[in-house]
Specification:
The protein has about 325 residues and is an alpha/beta fold. The protein has 2 domains: about 20-115 and about 220-315, Vaccinia Virus protein VP39 (Rossmann fold, 3-Layer(aba) Sandwich), CATH 3.40.50; about 140-220, Putative methyltransferase TM0872, insert domain (DNA polymerase, domain 1, Orthogonal Bundle). It is about 40% helix and about 15% strand. It contains 13 helices and 7 strands. It has helices at about 20-25, 45-50, 60-70, 75, 115, 145-150, 150-160, 170-180, 185-200, 205-220, 220-235, 250-260, 295-300, and strands at about 35, 55-60, 80-85, 100-110, 235-245, 285, 310-315. A 7-stranded mixed sheet has the order 3-2-1-4-5-7-6, with helices on both faces. Helix 7 packs across helix 8 (about 170-180), helix 8 (about 170-180) packs across helix 9 (about 185-200) and helix 11 (about 220-235) packs parallel to helix 12. The longest helix is centred in the C-terminal third of the chain and has 15 residues, at about 205-220. The chain is globular, with a radius of gyration of 20 Å. The two termini are about 30 Å apart.
């Protein structure tokens, strides 16, 4: 895709603007059966359907499924599209997918534009938004619950590991100090704590980073991803491709190390004299470096700036 590609933005909807769609379609060239693990607004699914693939898509968010099914109704009617509610980290617990394999699997780890923009979902730091942040609203434990119950050390770890913040203890201490006076309930409470910890000039980039950190913790996203990756690998047909789009350094690092490990012929400890592991690579990395969104795409969709795409092909 070039900077002037007229297809940039073609797959957007009022629900979500999917990132790096053309790159995803190129990686899945020739795929007949694709699993879209994160349906969102259906943009990636629609592009893959247009390329000739049949798509099964899953999402934890009921609203996303409703929106995408309406958008892709003709494909659903033809039998080429199926939407299921579920978590890709628990793919083996989705009855409709029992025994099914695919020659392409996509996981876009981002939050949809609609989720971010809906104050009642609590992903936004706009004034008055409830601190919720649950991807699946059937689950328990909101962002407010986390901020009001975890101790200072646990909060510090979240802000450090998921927010890439070396001075995380400062914010954790400020959250605890403020919640002792008044429980954290809305976005303003966390924003005020961030400003209290780092100064009044703290702005949207810092807010976004720390809100993302809390969201990752609320949904246990890195643990879920670590569990999901081998499950998705095992659902690939021989020569099938797994593509993952991440938006956080921890996610990208996990994906990078995992697919590199799968691509090594030996994973025994370095000082072990004789190989006792599988003795062969499970596949090959297709992206030596993570792909990033083009300047044209980032100009249209600022949320694509942090996106990183990595892909791996299963052995024959």
């Amino acid at each position: 895709m070039t900077d002037s590609d007229p297809l940039t933005g073609r797959w957007d909807s009022s629900y979500h603007a999917p990132v790096m769609v053309e790159e995803v379609v190129a990686l899945f060239k020739g795929a007949k059966q694709v699993l879209d693990c994160t349906l969102g607004g259906g943009g990636h699914s629609e592009a893959l359907l247009a390329s000739g693939a049949s798509v099964v898509a899953i999402d934890r968010d009921e609203a996303a499924i409703t929106e995408a099914r309406e958008r892709l109704a003709p494909h659903e009617a033809s039998g080429r599209f199926l939407a299921l509610r579920g978590n890709f980290g628990e793919i083996d617990r989705i009855p409709e997918l029992a025994g099914r394999t695919f020659d392409g699997i996509l996981a876009d780890l981002g939050v949809s534009s609609r989720q971010i923009d809906a104050d009642e979902r609590g992903f936004s730091f706009r004034p008055g938004a409830l601190l919720d942040m649950r991807m699946d609203r059937r689950s328990t434990g909101t962002a407010a619950d986390l901020l009001n119950t975890l101790d200072e050390a646990e909060l510090s770890q979240i802000f450090r590991d998921y927010g890439d913040e070396p001075r995380a203890n400062r914010l954790a201490r400020e959250v605890v100090r403020r919640r002792d006076r008044k429980p954290m309930r809305v976005s303003d409470d966390l924003v005020d704590a961030i400003r209290g910890a780092y100064g009044a000039r703290t702005g949207p980039s810092e807010f976004a980073r720390f809100f993302q950190a809390v969201r990752i913790a609320v949904n246990d996203e890195l643990a879920a991803l670590e569990k999901a990756l081998p499950l998705l690998r095992d659902r690939l047909d021989p020569r099938g491709v797994l593509a993952v789009i991440s938006y956080h350094s921890g996610e990208d690092r996990l994906v990078k190390h995992t697919i590199r490990g799968w691509s090594q012929s030996c994973i025994c400890p370095p000082k072990q004299l004789h190989c006792t592991c599988r003795g062969k690579a499970l596949g090959e990395v297709l992206t030596k470096r993570a792909l990033a969104a083009s300047p044209a795409e980032t100009a249209m969709n600022s949320r694509s700036r942090s996106a990183r795409l990595r892909a791996w092909r299963k052995a024959a």
